[in-house]
């Protein structure tokens, strides 16, 4: 009988390093929102991948950056919490950005937070630089920290991801599987649906309301015909933001709803009826309940 293995793998790095893209590539399904905006991943989203007899549970942490607000502090604390709980840590860095001050800060913190946990270096977006630059960057990073292994990949195109997956499958501890074989995420579908809608809003609104909104799934009704009715609320922090989210004649929220509904239908493989409302909650960034919805600890944001 084949010995099963299972373990948690934390993805850490600066915002936009490609953690969510790598997670989705490894799992083979979209479980973490991917945008060109920084700090889009708020909760520690677990994606589950099978490789042979090994089950690899990825923890996609928020990008680590210099926190200014309560939400920022909660996100950074969650990121390091995800690393501390893992069996293996993957430190992602963008090949074309190199060893930035932010990346150096994460390496410095790894010495404190990693302990005896193996840390592998994953240099992402290798298609953007020349081979000699990659070699130089790898040498510089390995001189700065004693990484267990170094992998060079393109998470978007899948280059090198197979080698990384094989290594992880062999490295996670011997253990019974932690989740059913066909499960891709341990997030409730209500939260995945909210994240999908928030991604569409982020892409549509660009810089107008960067991080002053959140989406919550208020109601989920399973219909007799196999479809689902999903009611969501978009909370914004200021009255002026409501008009931006709605758009002229409601065109923005309508387009967001259509895009989110199409993705939900594809993700779930059945009909979905999505209804969106926009409400002003000026202090939502200071409400413990909103943090709970995002899988964050409100107390972690205390200065």
TrEMBL record:
Q: Where is this region: G5?
A: 153-155
Q: Where is the Era-type G domain?
A: 5-174
User: What are the boundaries of the region G3?
Assistant: 60-63
Q: What is its main location?
A: cytoplasm
Q: Where does GTP bind?
A: 13-20, 60-64, 124-127
Domain of life the protein comes from: Bacteria
UniProt xrefs under Pfam families: KH_2, MMR_HSR1
Which GO MF term does the entry hold, naming one? Answer: GTP binding
What's in the keyword line of the UniProt record?
Cell membrane, Cytoplasm, GTP-binding, Membrane, Nucleotide-binding, Ribosome biogenesis, RNA-binding, rRNA-binding
KH type-2 domain: from which residue to which, for each copy? 205-282
GO cellular component terms attached to this protein's record: cytosol; plasma membrane
According to Swiss-Prot or TrEMBL, what is its membrane topology? Peripheral membrane protein
Q: Where is this region: G4?
A: 124-127
UniProt record similarity statement: Belongs to the TRAFAC class TrmE-Era-EngA-EngB-Septin-like GTPase superfamily. Era GTPase family.
Q: Briefly state the protein's biological role.
A: An essential GTPase that binds both GDP and GTP, with rapid nucleotide exchange. Plays a role in 16S rRNA processing and 30S ribosomal subunit biogenesis and possibly also in cell cycle regulation and energy metabolism.
Read off the PANTHER family from this record. Answer: GTPASE ERA, GTPASE ERA, MITOCHONDRIAL
Subunit structure and binding partners? Monomer.
What protein name applies here? Answer: GTPase Era
Q: Which organism is it from?
A: Paracoccus laeviglucosivorans
Q: What is the lineage of its organism?
A: Bacteria, Pseudomonadati, Pseudomonadota, Alphaproteobacteria, Rhodobacterales
Q: Which gene encodes it?
A: era
